[in-house]
Design a protein that fits this description.
The complex is a heterodimer of chains A (211) and B (359). Chain A contains nine helices and five strands. Chain A is an alpha/beta fold. A five-stranded parallel sheet of chain A has the order 2-1-3-4-5, sandwiched between helices. Chain B has a single domain, classed as TIM Barrel (Alpha-Beta Barrel), CATH 3.20.20. Chain B has 14 helices and twelve strands. The chains are: A alpha/beta (211), B alpha/beta (359).
């Protein structure tokens, strides 16, 4: 097994204690840090996402894999250097005003981060204007809006309308999700995408940005 | 018990159930009480009709602080969650009543237990002996003395839900599989498996319940939170102890577990759970065929909504009874139970299916 395969395997299995050491060994062997990130970790997380979608693994396994990757990225960061920024863009993600649910939103944050984005987590109970303010950053490519309740779907509509009216709107895609949300509702309120789970959210976000 | 054939007069309303704050339901002119019918069913005898969730009166009295914190007091005291819901539960976790959800939640971001491996440093177990059970029972005498409906109590916050309330969802999920944290979770569940039966014994002593509903959500809309292996390793040993303690008191154990959890049913059976309602996204037809001899399932016609017409309700209920009548199933809780005439239609068709018609 190559070092990159070892890293990928450890990330997939959520071995947070092993990954940093393996990443360091890979760096010591002279492997390109960008390759370690892409082949060793981001690709591994894509596999994790697929397995999650297919119910081969569940939320805890996905969480520990994402955390293991995070540990690896911490070791990798100095080697990547500021001149070698590999983030594919910034994503701002939050749960709409009046809604305190954060589980789905947290999973989406983890998976989107694991797909190579820099993530700004706005938290829960986020007013529309806070989404708009965060999305004004030119680095933002994705705005993720979450709602778990039928009663907070109007807040999602108001948030997406506010984002759609913002002058920076052409810079980013608006993605929505949450238990009561459907593709029809996403279309109706003018969102660019609806996804049913965190793994799909990550792959759709990535496709928006890198094609 | 004679197999008394169905007569149309049975659909006449002869009274109302006790109001627990969620409204009351009409009592039909049944040949035996819904409670007697449900007890027959639970004893493994053929009931006169398919029991329904509405045949159960399940209390969550204010004497258990969780019920106030969750805004879920259903007893005879006239609790108003918009006024009194929220606050500390019996472990001191602060809950926030959210009117839009009609429920409470712990505001994320400040867990009481920041590190689950050290939960003993943050959590003190309450003492149910020190609660005013006698006073509570006195206030709820009208419920305890009613004999029309099967009588039960619900424990909110089961094992996994308790873990979530201590350390938040993400951490709770990881702790269920992380080798470094599992031991602490085992210690917690072990202590909870001793603790919950203390409350159940109080319910037996002061409320004389027939059935205990134990609330522990294990899944989301699309899948369980965790694998069957994880449930078998982390939850089943402790759930089984709680179930066994419940059975020792002669009480039926119903698991309330939201989510698409059908793949976890073997774990429920292993733990000795008697009944699981389960949300409609679970394939009840598959479940009764595969596990119907081992556990009772709740189900109802899933095509119905509050907007369904009476004709649609009757058609769906007839089809439902035709399929499910051979199985040990009860008309479970769900939005469809409020469709117009669903209760009466399920009653009528299942009465006829089980006992024939005198008409």
């Amino acid at each position: 097994m190559s070092k990159l395969e070892e890293i990928a395997s450890a990330v997939e299995r959520g071995k947070a204690k092993l990954v940093p050491g393996l990443v360091q060994e890979a760096l010591d062997e002279g492997i390109d840090p960008v390759e370690i990130l892409n082949k060793g970790m981001i690709d591994a997380m894509s596999v994790v996402g697929e397995k999650f979608k297919n119910n081969e693994i569940f939320v805890p396994e996905m969480l520990v894999a994402a955390r293991a990757m995070k540990k690896g990225v911490e070791v990798l960061k100095p080697a990547l250097g500021s001149e070698n920024n590999v983030s594919i863009g910034k994503a701002v993600i939050g749960t709409v005003q009046g809604d305190l649910h954060d589980i789905g939103k947290n999973l989406v944050c983890l998976m989107i981060e694991s797909a190579g984005f820099e993530v700004q987590d706005l938290g829960v109970d986020v007013p529309a204007e806070k989404f708009v303010e965060a999305a004004a950053d030119p680095a933002v490519k994705i705005v993720g809006v979450s709602a778990l309740l039928t009663t907070t779907m109007p807040a999602m509509k108001a948030t997406v309308e506010a984002l759609n009216a913002a002058p920076e709107r052409a810079n980013y895609k608006v993605m929505v999700g949450g238990a009561p949300i459907t593709q029809e509702f996403a279309d109706e309120i003018g969102a660019d995408a609806y996804t049913a789970d965190a793994a799909t959210a990550a792959s759709v976000a990535k496709a928006f940005v890198v094609g | 018990m004679d197999r008394i054939p169905f007569r149309k007069e049975e659909l006449e309303i002869v009274g109302q159930t006790v109001n627990l704050g969620r409204g009351s339901f009409p009592l039909l002119n049944t040949p035996i009480t819904p409670r007697e019918n449900f007890l027959m069913f639970l004893r493994g005898e053929e009931p006169l009709w398919m029991p329904q969730q509405r045949d159960v009166l399940s209390v969550t009295p204010a004497v258990v602080k969780d019920n106030i914190a969750r805004g879920f007091v259903h007893d005879a005291t006239g609790f108003d969650p918009n006024k009194d819901g929220g606050g500390p539960d019996m472990f001191g976790i602060e809950w926030e009543w959210v009117p839009q959800v009609n429920g409470s939640m712990v505001r994320p971001g400040n867990p009481k237990v920041p590190d689950i491996t050290e939960w003993e440093n943050y959590i003190e177990f309450p003492d149910p002996d020190s609660w005013d059970w006698a006073g509570s029972a006195e206030k709820n005498k009208v419920l305890i003395e009613q004999k029309d409906l099967l009588f039960g109590a619900t424990i909110l916050n089961g094992l996994f839900e308790r873990l979530i309330s201590f350390c938040e969802m993400d951490e709770a999920l990881v702790a269920m599989i992380d080798e470094d944290e599992q031991e602490a979770v085992h210690r917690l569940f072990d202590k909870l498996a001793d603790f919950y039966p203390k409350i159940i014994r109080k319910y037996k002593e002061y409320y004389n319940i027939d059935i205990l509903t134990f609330h522990d959500d294990w899944g989301s809309q699309r899948a369980p939170f965790f694998s069957l292996d994880t449930v078998e390793e982390m939850l089943v040993p402790y759930l089984k102890r709680i179930v066994d303690a419940t059975h020792e008191l002669g009480i039926i154990f119903e698991l309330h577990s939201c989510g698409k959890n059908e793949m976890l049913v073997p774990a429920m059976i292993e733990a000795g759970v008697d009944m699981w309602n389960g949300q409609p996204m679970n394939d009840k037809r598959m479940l009764v065929e595969k596990y119907g001899d081992k556990m009772i399932f709740g189900a109802y016609p899933t095509t119905l909504t509050n907007d369904s017409t009476v004709e649609e309700v009757r058609e769906a209920c007839k089809e439902f009874v035709d399929f499910f009548n051979p199985y040990r199933i009860y008309g479970g809780y769900g939005s469809a139970m409020f469709a117009p005439g669903v209760r009466e239609s399920l009653y009528e068709f299942s009465r006829i299916a089980k006992c024939g018609s005198a008409e």
